[in-house]
Design goal:
- With about 300 residues, this protein is mainly alpha-helical.
- The protein is built from 16 helices and eight strands.
- The longest helix is centred in the N-terminal third of the chain and has 19 residues.
- It is globular.
- The N and C termini lie close together (about 10 Å).
Length: about 300
C-alpha cells in the first residue's frame, strides 16, 4: 500500500433513527417527504395564498431555531419534521435537508426552505426528469473511470468556470461531457439546463450540478469518515497537519524513500495531497469529507466503502 496504516477505524454506534440502505426508490421516498411537508403547511395556513403559506412555514421553522441564528442545522430540522409528525429514516431526513439547502453550507435558512417547498426556487434534486439524466451521466462516469470517476470529473469541470461566475453555458456543458467521454444527447443537456439554471439566464449552476453528480452521502458513511478524521486530528482543532498525519501513517518503507528518491516528508506531502485541496499542508474537515463524498458517489457497497 502507499503507506502503512497504523490506525483502525471502529464501526460507529447504531444511529438512533435506524439508518437503512438506499434502494432504487430512495429519492421517491424523499419526494414523498417533501409532499408531506407541503401538505402540512397548506393545512396549517388554511390553504392560503403562496405568501401566506411561506410565512406560516417560516414561523414554524423559527420555533425550532433554538440558538436564534436564522437557520436550522440537521438536528433542528429533524425536530421540525417530528413536530409535523413526519416519519422517516435518518438518511431520508438528511437527503431532504440537502435538497432544501441550496448552497450546500449545512445551514438551512427559513427562506431557502420556504422558497423550495412552494416552488419559488427550483429544486433540481427533487425532479425525477433531472435525476434520470444525472444518473445517466454518473453511470457513464463509473463505467469509464471506476471508483475515482466523480472526483476527477468534478475537478475538471470546475476548471471550466474560467470567469469564476459559478455557472457554465449549455455549449460548455455539452462539450465538457463529450471531452470526458460521457456521451449524452442534446436533449439530455436541455434537461440539465432547464433544471440547473438557477438564475434564468440559460446557464447551468455548476455547484448544483456537481452536487447532484455526487449525490447524497449516507449517514452511516459520514459517521465512519468523521471517526477516521477524529483519529487523525489529535488535538481536535478540525485540522490535520502533516505532523499529525505522520503519527497515524508510516512512510519509512515506501519505495521512493528506500531508494533515496524522496524524503519521508515529501512522501507524506504527496499522500496528503489526496485530501488537501488547497495545497497548504493542512487537511481541514471539509476537505477530508469532500474527498470521501466524491468516492462515495461511485461506491454502492457499504462494506467496500468502509475498507477504503
Amino acid at each position: 500500500s502507499f503507506c502503512t496504516l497504523l490506525v483502525h477505524t471502529p464501526m460507529p454506534p447504531k444511529h438512533p433513527y435506524g439508518v437503512t440502505a438506499h434502494t432504487l426508490d430512495f429519492e421517491a421516498k424523499v419526494d414523498e417527504l417533501a409532499k408531506l411537508v407541503r401538505n402540512f403547511v397548506e393545512h396549517k395556513s388554511g390553504f392560503g395564498e403562496e405568501h401566506v403559506k411561506s410565512r406560516t412555514l417560516q414561523n414554524i421553522l423559527k420555533q425550532f431555531d433554538i440558538d436564534h441564528l436564522g437557520w436550522l442545522d440537521h438536528n433542528e430540522f429533524a425536530k421540525t419534521l417530528d413536530y409535523m409528525n413526519i416519519q422517516s429514516t435518518a438518511d431520508e431526513r438528511v437527503a431532504l435537508f440537502e435538497r432544501y439547502d441550496m448552497d450546500g453550507n449545512g445551514k438551512l435558512t427559513f427562506k431557502e426552505m420556504a422558497d423550495n417547498v412552494f416552488g419559488v426556487a427550483g429544486c433540481p434534486f427533487g425532479n425525477p426528469e433531472a435525476r434520470a439524466v444525472v444518473k445517466k451521466v454518473v453511470d457513464k462516469m463509473k463505467a469509464r473511470y471506476g471508483d475515482t470517476g466523480v472526483r476527477g470529473f468534478t475537478k475538471g469541470f470546475s476548471t471550466m468556470d474560467r470567469d469564476r461566475s459559478g455557472s457554465i453555458s449549455k455549449e460548455e456543458l455539452f462539450n465538457g461531457l463529450q471531452r470526458y467521454g460521457v456521451q449524452v444527447t442534446l436533449a439530455d443537456v436541455d434537461v440539465l439546463v432547464k433544471h440547473f439554471d438557477r438564475h434564468g439566464d440559460g446557464q447551468v449552476d455548476l455547484t448544483d450540478f456537481l452536487r447532484a453528480l455526487r449525490g447524497h452521502m449516507k449517514t452511516k458513511r459520514k459517521e465512519l469518515v468523521a471517526q477516521a478524521y477524529k483519529i487523525l486530528d489529535r488535538n481536535g482543532d478540525q485540522t490535520v497537519t502533516l505532523g499529525e498525519l505522520s503519527q497515524a501513517f508510516s512512510a519509512d518503507q515506501h519505495p521512493a524513500v528506500l531508494k533515496g528518491q524522496k524524503t519521508v516528508e515529501e512522501v507524506m506531502r504527496d499522500f496528503a495531497a489526496s485530501w488537501d485541496k488547497s495545497g497548504d499542508g493542512v487537511i481541514t474537515w471539509e476537505e477530508f469529507l469532500d474527498y470521501y463524498h466524491d468516492l462515495s458517489a461511485n461506491i454502492e457497497n457499504d462494506q467496500y466503502f468502509e475498507l477504503m
